[in-house]
Structures are given as C-alpha cells and as structure tokens.
Amino acid sequence: MRSKLIVANWKMNLDFWAGLQLANAILQQLQAQAPPVAQVILLPSYLHLQAIKSLLPTSDLIQLGAQNCHEQAGGAFTGEISASMLHSVGARFVLIGHSERREHWGENEVLLAHKVTTALAHGLRPIFCCGEYGATREAGQAIPFVQQQLAESLFHLTATEMAQVILAYEPVWAIGTGRTPTPDEVQAMHQAIRSTVAQQYSATLAQQIPILYGGSCNAQNASSFFACSEVDGGLIGSASLQAASLVAIIRQLL
Ligand code: PGA
Asked: Is 254 a residue whose pLDDT tops 90?
C-alpha cells in the first residue's frame, strides 16, 4: 500500500520562535490522540530545521524537509543551501519545482532535473511539484502540460531513484487563491500522472509513488480530495500555519 502523507509548506512565514511554537503545538495535538494514518512532513524555513528536529520524538510521527535546495553539491554559491547541509540537520525531504520558485526565480525543467538528482544523491527525497496554469486548463491542455513537466524533470532518473520521489499536483491557479479543481478533476489528473509514470517505468513502480494534491486545500475541503482513490495526501500551504487546521486535515486522511 502507498504511504499517506501530509506535507506542510510554511513558505516564508513565521519567525524563529513562532515556528517552534507551531511545531510544538502540532506535535502536542497529534500526540493527544491515536497516531495518525498519515506521515506528517513539515517544511519550515531553513532557519527552523535544526531546532524543530530537536523538539521531535525519535518516532517518525513528524519528519522534516526543506522548501528548496541548490542544484550543486557545494562550492562558491554565496547565500545558498546545499542538499547535504539540509541532510546534516535532519531534513529527509525537499520540495522541488514549487510554482513560486518556477515563477519568481525562473526555475525551469532543466534546473529542476539537476536539483532532483542532487537531492537524491545526498539522501533527500524530492517532493516534486507539477501543475498547470489557469489558461492551460481552459485550453484543455492541463494533462499534456503536466506530463511534459514530469518527463523533462524526472524521467532521467533510474527506477530505483524514481521510487524515492513523491509527486504533488498543484494547479498554479489554485495556490493561495481559495479556488480548487473539483475532486473529479483532481482524480483524473492523478490517474494521468500515474499512467505516465507507468509507461515510462512500470505499473508496479507507478502504484508505489504517492501523489499529493495541493492548492487551497484546507480543513473544509480536504476530505473531498482525500476520498479520491488516486489522492495519497495533501501539500498544504496557508492552512498549515495553524496547528488546529493542519491537524484537522491530517485526521481526514483515512
Ligand atoms: P495553499 O498553498 O495551500 O496556501 O494554496 C499550497 C502550496 O503552495 O504548496
């Protein structure tokens, strides 16, 4: 059976102390009841990683990842953070290809392919984001657009490497807007993503890869997405900044 995951993307929010408080509140609320079905992954700022790691129990109740890493292993890249640095403070996952990085930093498929390879080489599992623009969906091109993103950034990987990747379908027009696709549209996209992976690798591999939905997913609508058989969890932005709403989403993953 595929893992069920909830990934909290805090983006550039919360100062050091507020981040610690939020991580602590999430931990307390999760520990207060039966262990969740979902694996919970927090993606705080780089600044928070080590301190949050020291708060967490050794159980895998909550794991940590980063929101980005550099494509090179190390060297003269002032101000950047490498995959091995992230691994050394306890991160085991890294978000790659988020639409905000594509848009504001011009990250393209070639660069993202490089980042994915570097992350894997240093023990980080990539959470690879894909998703179409509103105009692409209106033009009926959402599925081929996403298929091309996957092909260009991921299909250089070996099957063993690909088995480490987590996919997140995040339509750009749904991120931070309060608008979402319907659960049927999400299910259709996830099916298309899985069959693209199956064609490139194998049906067995495709069945193992978690595919998350992200984009204005919150405590009110999460269960409608999680009810889709192809949806293995969520990538949550603004609704992950309050412990109660994040935990409510985590509890909806059955
Ligand atoms: P949102 O962000 O939940 O605030 O729409 C999701 C994301 O960008 O990962």
From this structure: no
Tell me, in angstroms, the distance from the centre of ligand 1 to residue 45's CA. 15
**Is the distance from the beta carbon of residue 249 to the nearest atom of ligand 1 less than 6 Å?**
no
Once rounded to an integer, what is the mean pLDDT over residues 210-229? 98
pLDDT digits (tens, 9 = 90+) for 5-31: 999 999 999 999 999 999 999 999 999
Q: Which residues are CB-contacts of 135 (< 8 A; sequence separation ≥ 6)?
A: none
CA of 148 to the centre of ligand 1 (A): 22
Q: 180-208: per-residue pLDDT in tens?
A: 999 999 999 999 999 999 999 999 999 99
Structure tokens at 31: 């520990």
Distances in whole angstroms, Cα of residue 150 to Cα of each of 43, 115, 183: 22, 14, 21
| 147 Cβ closer than 6 Å to some ligand 1 atom | no
Q: How far apart (Å, rounded) are the C-alpha atoms in residues 112 and 241?
A: 27
**How many Å from the N-terminal Cα to the C-terminal Cα in the chain?**
13
Give the Cα separation of 183 and 180 in Å (integer). 9
* Whether residue 59 has pLDDT greater than 80: no
CA-atom Rg of the chain in angstroms: 17
Predicted structure pTM score: 0.98
